[in-house]
Design brief:
The structure is a homodimer. Chain A is α/β, with parallel strands linked by helices and about 475 residues long. Chain A folds into two domains: about 5-50 and about 380-440, Urease, subunit C, domain 1, CATH 2.30.40.10; about 55-365, Alpha-Beta Barrel (TIM Barrel), CATH 3.20.20. Helix content of chain A is about 35%, strand content about 20%. Chain A contains 15 helices and 17 strands. In chain A, strands 5-14-15-16-17 form a five-stranded antiparallel β-sheet, with no helix packed on it. A four-stranded mixed β-sheet of chain A has the order 3-2-1-4, with no helix packed on it. In chain A, strands 6-7-8-9 form a four-stranded parallel β-sheet. In chain A, helix 4 runs parallel beside helix 5 (about 210-220). The model of chain A has no long low-confidence stretch (mean pLDDT about 95). At the A-B interface, strand 2, helix 2, helix 9, helix 11 and helix 13 of A face strand 2, helix 2, helix 9, helix 11 and helix 13 of B.
């Protein structure tokens, strides 16, 4: 589809200008700041609107939407115990929560979602199929990393020198890798905006063999790599117990880190780890809301930026956030660091935030040549913001207010690969009212639940983490 | 006006129930959980909706809306330099920004705003009149504390042992207090929901005489007291320079602190200060977003709660936040502390957050007997949330998701003093579209501005705060 956006506001180096932008097929064909372009195809009125490249929701778990609001304030290890205790969603629910995740991402400036997708045991491929269907229907660019592990949940908590027995994981390393090959063969279609990534959950629940298999799979199929990394103090302890080195040293030693590897959280790195990460070109995905909610800590993002590490933003799963508003993650993920460094000259500016969210996001996916900036020849993953919405008024600095303010329903139009998938703030290819009605069929507002897992895990956790009994 | 809300969901001690609620005039007349109440007056369908008492936006500066998005990430002292550099808004703008502040507060669950109102020099009474007009028109409950001082801006930065000359403030202590008396005489009408408070900006810019005059005024007219307190490390240093004691010790010594005193920020208190604050019954107003934005620090809210100090939430002015979404302030202001205390048993739960936002807010205004809970006989300042909005789906724990999620346009109806001032998510008594059009008449998106004040203040600030040149 061809179209021309007329007189939209875009940022320049130090200010703003108005431009005409021509889109031809999937690409930005021309951008003119000086003279109007001859309209090609549909004409879009860009006046009183801000045009930016789409952002990347660099780390989420879409199906956690089913438990958002439910889990009380707990640290990660106990939170996980409750998360995995209850009946997993069915494939229809996976489809609905992927749609919900996509809608919230799109309506907060995201055009691409990295879904570290929790799999239904025994229905792993169906889980991926349901998410693929949702993302293709709504039209968002997607990177699905089926969340895999080959060790059972209790192995993720440090032993603290005590002897603990662990159940075997329900399937073997080979079965996990075989399932991944099937998923790649069936769903990996980068030219259509649908990508599979290898995404072992992290060092806390994966064997050497699983990491090796994932690297082999990613090399053979040219896949991006993803994982959680050092989200909690407990994981830092666990790495030392498991490898007698830091988790970053381990991942570097086995060769997991490269410029197409993105790593969620990265809170508990030591200084030597930062240098290693910088050397490998791997990307840090910053999930500030989840990190606060779970009390995991503040990722040292200013240090990463000073070391030259690429940083992107993520919402993390909706049970640890508990939403998918990317503008909220960008805001808090930027200003949170102002309390970690007294020298305000190091603080992240709104323009830097926007660059991290767009270019930083796609760089972690190896797509910086094709996405992430308003550049002729790049793909048309674009967002048009309505600057006349109350939350973006009065007329001040559009990017300053978009990042530091609390924008609400400000996304007017979104294009992915040149196709309009949001118009007048509504998805064009799915029925939002129908999605809400489908979600309403599940659950109940007035029932409360109790977690048995928490009761079982809590005593050991408090002991290992040196908390009062 | 009389009306009956039927079958709304409300929280009980450990879960939820559905109720009918009868409102008669300004009051909650009856609440029935067991059997339907006979409908009186208008019937409101409460099904699929959550009913809560209104929250308090416990600290803001409404006219800062005109600069939201504009000021780069700076610490408070430099940020203030830029804030006060440019032409102040005119009374018409004061009126518009008060309306904007009220709309954003109402649409995020607030029914009451504490406006620490920055005055136009030479038009002090007109400034207050413009804000009063706005709040009366839209119908929100308001506490206006005209922001007063009697020392010039540069005196707010510690000298660090150097000798510095300061300009005299543009009007005398007596003139300031005389203006305040006029404002009280003209606008203080508590029975109509319009209250004037004494609100010296803080120890950093006020003389002993100004504090004494404010206390005398508040005693004579039964006014609430308000002030900023220890927002920055620089203010902590300044208090020691100025009084040879902490700011809390000073305020306690002069008798400023009582159960109707609310204090914004309270970040840099020492342990002895916490005990003093608890003893006086004063309220801490927590402004987490502004505190992050300005790099001021994390207020030790968990310690305050453990010491028995009442805590409320505020958005702070929209130039240091840069919005007025109270649900965002409640979310971040609750989960931010999870990184300050490893023991998750101390973390604030969503139910506690809601209680702080409602009951905590009104307690700081001495209104806990009349507002802040769903109780028969209390005033009907109520909010009805639409639980079928995508951002509050699926059906899980309504308060968990309201606080920890990212609710967007979820406020369906708001009543203040029994009068419906929001219906179907829109203000009933003002024209929102007209407000947006009026705001659009000012400013320009594409001009950038440079601050001369920053250039002048920066070198001294960096030296006093021990930052590299």
């Amino acid at each position: 589809m061809n179209f021309t956006i007329q007189q939209a506001i875009i940022p320049t180096l130090n200010g703003y200008t108005t431009v005409d932008v021509q889109i031809e097929g999937e690409q930005i064909k021309a951008i003119s700041t000086d003279s109007p372009l001859p309209p090609r195809g549909t004409v879009i009125d860009g006046r009183k609107k801000l045009l930016l490249p789409g952002f990347v929701n660099g780390h989420t778990h879409s199906s956690e939407m089913w438990q958002r609001g439910l889990i009380p304030p707990y640290p990660l290890e106990l939170w996980l115990g409750e998360l995995h205790e209850f009946t997993p969603p069915n494939p229809e629910q996976i489809y609905l929560s992927a749609l919900g995740t996509a809608v919230e991402t799109l309506l907060s400036g995201g055009t691409c979602v990295v879904d570290h997708l929790v799999l239904i045991p025994g229905k792993e491929v169906e889980t991926v199929a349901a998410a693929v269907k949702a993302y293709q229907e709504i039209g968002i660019r997607a990177y699905i990393g089926p969340l895999i592990q080959d060790q059972s949940m209790s192995e993720g908590i440090p032993s603290g020198g005590t002897h603990r027995e662990h159940e075997a994981y329900y399937c073997s390393t080979e079965e996990v890798l075989g399932m991944m090959q099937t998923v790649v063969d069936r769903f990996h279609q980068p030219e259509a905006g649908m990508n599979i990534m290898v995404a072992p959950t992290g060092i806390q629940l994966c064997s050497d063999g699983l990491f090796a298999g994932c690297m082999e799979l990613s090399d053979r199929n040219s896949l991006c790599r993803h994982a959680h990394l050092l989200e909690t103090k407990a994981q830092q302890l666990l790495a030392h117990e498991k490898y007698a080195m830091t988790a970053v040293q381990y991942l570097d030693k086995i060769g997991y880190l490269n410029p197409r590897t993105s790593l969620a959280h990265c809170i508990w790195l030591e200084d030597q780890d930062i240098a290693i990460l910088a050397k490998t070109g791997a990307t840090v995905v910053h999930n500030p809301l989840s990190n606060l909610r779970l009390g995991s800590g503040i990722a040292p993002i200013l240090k990463y930026r000073q070391a030259g590490i690429n940083v992107a933003f993520g919402c993390d799963g909706a049970a640890s956030n508990d939403g998918q508003d990317l503008l909220e993650a960008i805001k808090i993920g930027s200003m949170l660091h102002n309390i970690t460094d007294r020298d305000y000259q190091h603080w992240i500016t709104p323009r830097e935030s926007v660059e991290m969210a767009a270019l930083g996001g796609v760089t972690g996916l190896g797509m910086e040549d094709q996405l992430g900036t308003l550049t002729e020849g790049k793909m048309a993953d674009l967002v048009l913001y309505d600057l006349t919405n109350l939350s973006l008024l009065p007329k001040t600095d559009p990017i300053g207010l978009l990042v530091m303010g609390r924008p609400t329903q400000v996304v007017d139009r979104v294009w992915v690969r040149g196709e309009e998938i949001i118009a007048q703030g509504q998805p064009t290819r799915i029925d939002l009212k129908g999605l809400r009605e489908a979600l309403l069929q599940y659950g109940d507002w007035t029932t409360t639940r109790q977690s048995n897992n928490i009761a079982q895990l809590e005593q050991h956790y408090r002991q290992v983490m040196d908390l009062p009994k």
